[in-house]
Design goal:
The chain has about 500 residues and is of the alpha/beta class. It is built from 16 helices and 20 strands. A hairpin with a 2-residue loop joins strand 3 and strand 4. Bound molecules: flavin-adenine dinucleotide (FAD). Flavin-adenine dinucleotide binds next to helix 1 and helix 16.
C-alpha cells in the first residue's frame, strides 16, 4: 500500500519511519532542499545559524520520551550537551547578597536549591517545596499526548491512573501559579525580581518552566551538537535506512480527491503522483484550505482560521552575528536589560535582550569565532509577512536597519562591533517562506490557559477518506515531542484502519 507524505519536517520523517516499520511503502514530498522543516540551521559565511532547538526534551534515559526517540533514532550515538546552567538572567532593580545582578538557573536541582537557599535563607520553606515538587515531576514525564482519542481519554487508557493521582495534586497546586504570582511569594527582593523575569516580560505558568527543569536535572534536556539540522538529518538517515524515499524541491499544490476519496497529490510542476493514502504533515491551514480547497471542514476548523478558538504560537525575529572572537567566558544563554528599549519595526517593544552564544558547539563557527543569536518573540508577525509580500525592497532595508539597531545594543554589552564577520536576520516571513507555517508560527498553537487543550485539527478530516493529517499543529504547545507523537499516533490509526497491528522495528542497522 503506497502512502504519499507531504513534508519532510520531523512529523513527516517520523511518520515515514513508523509507516515503513509497519510495512507501508512511503514517499515523502518536500518543497525545500533539505530535511527538518522548522528543525533547521543554515550556513552563512562559514557560520552555522541555528533556527530551532536549544534543548531536546527526552534526550537522555531520565525521561520516558527517550524510549520514543529510541524507536526512531539510536539516541546513545547522538552527542548531546547538557549545560550546567540553563540560563543567566540579569536583573535591573536589585542585586543579590554578593552584589551581583546575575541570577543563575542551574540545571542540577541540588545545586539550584543550595544556590537559592544561600541567597535567601528566609525563603527556605518555599524553596525546598519548589525544588521538591520539580523532583516529583520527574516521575510523570511527558503526557501521553495525541492518541487517536483525545488527551484525557488516552491518559486514562494508556497509563496507570493511580500514578497520576499525585500528578493531579501537583497540577492543581501549580496550575494557577505564574512567574508573576510565584515571585511575590519570595521575601528576598533579588529572587522576587529574578523569578518574575524567568520569562521575558511575560506571565507564564510556572509548570511550563518546572517540567523542563525536572528533566534538565536528570540530563534529559540536552542540546544536539551540530545543531538542529544535524538532529533532523538523523531522522532522514533512519527513514532512508528503513527503505523510505524522499523527493526534495517537490512542492505539493493540490491533494486530488475523487468522490471524497484522496487519490494522490499534484506537484507544482503539474505531475500527479497517485497513492492509496495521503498523509499531510505540512501546515494545517495550507492543507485544509489550499491543498484541499476548504472542501472538508467543520465549524471548528472554520473558527480556527479566524484564530477565534485557539491562538497561534509566537513567531520570532532572529538576528544573528558571526563574531571574530572566542567569547567562551560568557554564559551560553543570557538575558539582560537594555538601557534603551528596542522598538521592533513590527511595533513590539523589548526592554531586554535574549542572547545565545554557541561557543560550546564547534560545528557552529570557525575556530576562535562565535555564532551569536538574538531572539525577539513576536505576535505581530503579519507585519513582516505583509511587508515581504507587498514591498520586497522595503522588507530588505527594514531588516538591515533593525540588524544595526540590535548590533548597537549588543555592542554596548559585548563590545563586538569591530569583530563582525557575518550578519543575518530571519523573520516570520522567513519561516512562512521556507516551511509554510501559518503566520510564521514556531510551534503551532499556543497552549494558552488550558495546558491540556486539544487541537480541532484531527488526524482525519470530515467526510474525506484515505487522507490523514499529523504535525505539531495536532496538539497545542507544538515542539518536537508533539511532532513525533502525532506521527506515531497517526501511524497507529492508519495501521488500525488497515487491519495491521502497530509495531516498532528497533533495529538500527541498514536494511
Ligand atoms: C526558533 C524556534 C525554536 C524552537 N525551539 C524548539 C525547542 O527548543 N524544542 C522543541 O521541541 N521545539 C522547538 N521548536 C519547534 C519545533 O521546531 C517544531 O514544533 C517542529 O519542528 C515542527 O515539526 P513538523 O514536522 O510538525 O512541522 P514543520 O517543521 O513545519 O514541517 C513541515 C514540512 O512540510 C513542508 N511543506 C510545507 N508545505 C509543503 C508543500 N506544499 N509541499 C511539500 N512540502 C511542504 C515544509 O517545508 C516542512 O519541511 C522551535 C521552533 C523554532 C522556529
Amino acid at each position: 500500500m503506497k502512502i504519499n507524505i507531504i513534508g519532510a519536517g520531523i512529523s513527516g520523517l517520523s511518520a515515514g519511519c513508523y509507516l515503513q516499520m509497519n510495512g507501508f511503502e512511503t514517499e515523502i514530498f518536500e518543497k525545500h532542499t533539505i530535511p527538518g522543516g522548522l528543525c533547521t540551521s543554515w550556513n552563512k559565511k562559514g557560520f552555522l545559524v541555528d533556527g530551532c532547538a536549544h534543548w531536546i526534551m527526552g534526550s537522555g534515559p531520565g525521561s520516558s520520551f527517550y524510549k520514543i526517540y529510541n524507536e526512531l533514532l539510536d539516541m546513545e550515538s547522538i552527542p548531546f550537551l547538557n549545560h550546567d546552567i540553563r540560563m543567566v538572567i540579569e536583573v535591573k532593580e536589585t542585586v543579590d547578597k554578593y552584589g551581583s545582578n546575575q541570577f543563575k538557573l542551574y540545571t542540577n536541582l541540588n545545586q539550584l536549591q543550595a544556590y537559592l537557599l544561600d541567597l535567601s535563607p528566609e525563603d527556605s520553606v518555599l524553596i525546598i517545596s519548589f525544588i521538591s515538587d520539580i523532583r516529583k515531576m520527574q516521575k510523570y514525564d511527558l503526557p501521553p499526548i495525541l492518541d487517536d482519542l483525545p488527551f484525557v481519554k488516552s491518559a486514562i487508557r494508556g497509563f496507570k491512573m493511580i500514578k497520576y493521582v499525585e500528578f493531579l495534586f501537583l497540577f492543581l497546586k501549580w496550575n494557577n501559579e505564574t512567574n508573576y504570582t510565584f515571585s511575590k511569594r519570595f521575601k528576598n527582593p533579588f529572587l522576587q525580581e529574578a523569578i518574575r523575569l524567568l520569562y521575558d516580560n511575560e506571565e507564564v505558568k510556572m509548570m511550563v518552566m518546572m517540567m523542563p527543569l525536572a528533566f534538565f536535572d536528570v540530563k534529559s534536556c540536552g542540546y544536539p551538537l551540530g545543531g538542529s539540522i544535524a538532529f533532523a538529518k538523523y531522522f532522514e538517515t533512519r527513514y532512508l535506512e528503513l527503505g523510505g524515499k524522499i523527493q526534495y524541491r517537490k512542492a505539493v499544490k493540490e491533494i486530488i480527491v475523487e468522490d471524497n476519496v484522496a487519490k494522490g497529490i499534484l506537484l507544482s510542476n503539474n505531475t500527479f503522483v497517485p497513492s492509496d493514502i495521503t498523509l499531510s504533515t505540512a501546515d494545517w491551514k495550507l492543507t485544509v484550505f489550499n491543498l484541499l480547497k476548504g472542501s472538508y471542514v467543520n465549524d471548528k476548523l472554520i473558527k480556527l482560521k479566524d484564530e477565534k478558538s485557539l491562538a497561534v504560537f509566537y513567531s520570532v525575529v532572529q538576528v544573528s552575528f558571526g563574531i571574530n572572537a572566542d567569547l567562551s567566558d560568557l554564559p551560553h544563554f543570557f538575558r539582560f536589560p537594555l538601557d534603551e528599549k528596542i522598538v521592533s519595526p513590527d511595533g513590539t517593544i523589548y526592554d531586554r535582550m535574549e542572547v545565545h552564544l554557541y561557543h560550546y558547539d564547534p560545528a557552529m563557527a570557525p575556530e576562535g569565532k562565535t555564532t551569536v543569536v538574538i531572539s525577539f518573540y513576536t505576535l505581530n508577525r503579519d507585519f513582516w509577512i505583509d511587508l515581504r509580500t507587498t514591498d520586497r525592497r522595503k522588507y530588505r532595508t527594514t531588516k538591515t536597519d533593525f540588524i544595526m539597531v540590535v548590533l548597537d545594543s549588543l555592542d554596548k554589552r559585548l563590545n563586538i562591533k569591530d569583530k563582525i564577520d557575518m550578519m543575518d536576520m530571519a523573520t516570520p516571513a522567513t519561516i512562512l517562506r521556507y516551511t509554510n507555517n501559518w503566520k510564521g508560527s514556531t510551534q503551532g498553537w499556543l497552549p494558552g490557559k488550558n495546558l491540556i487543550a486539544s487541537s480541532p485539527v484531527k488526524f482525519k478530516l470530515p467526510k474525506l477518506s484515505q487522507f490523514y493529517y499529523a504535525s505539531h499543529w495536532s496538539q497545542p504547545g507544538g515542539g518536537l515531542p508533539i511532532a513525533i507523537m502525532a506521527a506515531r499516533s497517526v501511524t497507529k490509526l492508519i495501521c488500525k484502519q488497515n487491519g495491521k497491528k502497530f509495531s516498532i522495528n528497533k533495529r538500527f542497522e541498514t536494511i
